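The protein record now logged underneath.
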Amino acid sequence: MFDASGKGGAQQVVETVDAIIVGAGVVGLAIARELAAAGRETLVLDGEGQFGSWTSSRNSEVIHAGIYYPPGSLKARLCVEGRDLLYDFCAARGVPHRRTGKIIFAHDAAQLAELDVIEARARQAGVHDLVRLGPRDVLALEPELPCAGGLLSPSTGIVDSHALMLALLGEAEAHGAMLVTGSRVARVGKADGLWQVWLDGADSPAVAAPVVVNAAGLSAQRLAAAVEGLDPAFVPPTFYARGVYFTYGGRVPFRHLIYPVPEPGGLGTHLTLDLAGQARFGPDVEWIDTVDYTVDPARHAKFAAAAQRIWPALDPARLQAGYAGVRPKITGPGEDAGDFVISGPADHGCAGLVNLFGIESPGLTSSMAIARVVAGKLSG
């Protein structure tokens, strides 16, 4: 049985390192790179058989410009910072990516006011390259997109998320970091000034470190609740929003990413492209109680209707169920979207512990900027 006092546990620890990161998604790997490059002996633990199995591999692979987020929020600041860091990193390391640009369109005149709001918010967040488009301007760029007007975001792009994570992991390992998969963390206790980490099924701690970073994504709250001495007041509620994607079996006549004005819970069903030029539509928003990646083919009609608002000439027969992702949210249906939460020792009082909650979109874009914030909270 777990001894909450930690008595006797130190003698059973297999290994001691400088920092333990729980979660090997894109954010966890970016943090590992940051800490390892600073000279910390870093261990990354992940419960799955490979890195990036959850949110990091089940998204649109979009490099966001930083358009939608409330001024002063972490999402607004870290998206803009992270976007620039990410483009520079990808260019320097040969990670496949492309600045495709994005058009946010108003389907009818009633939505034009929403474009005004988006444009003003983007400027406040430091995004100054948006271009307002009239209907003819949009058609000049994308002849198959009839609309009442739009916004062009030249800084939006796409990236190969798997290649990105490989590059982050490679740099972390080059600085001595180690990734151990198939290692689900069950609890974290404190003894002799070190955080001790227990893995599922073990009756003694596996490893210890003065620093633990909880980057467990969809399981971040579960893990935080299992940290000895952490006040539950610093663990936000958990909500899951599933986003389904449908793929298109054929070429599409678009060069930019195409987004409608946002909808509650997400950015609306949009069209994104992969680096091979293939299109996918999604994600939608469905609130669920448990993590479930099921894609119901019966949603075809709904997706076809949403896709035809973007591309009226779309052939519904070429649209097919693709994949799903789950957003790790800290606010629920009908509430304003929550900000990133990066909670360090100065926040909760537990030395050497950083918890990350609600790292949904734009988490991939912000990953390296998030890593810098985490490093700062551990050195402050």
In short: Residues 190 and 377 are 19 Å apart (CA to CA). The chain is about 25% helix and 25% strand. The longest helix spans residues 74-93. The chain has a mean pLDDT of 93.
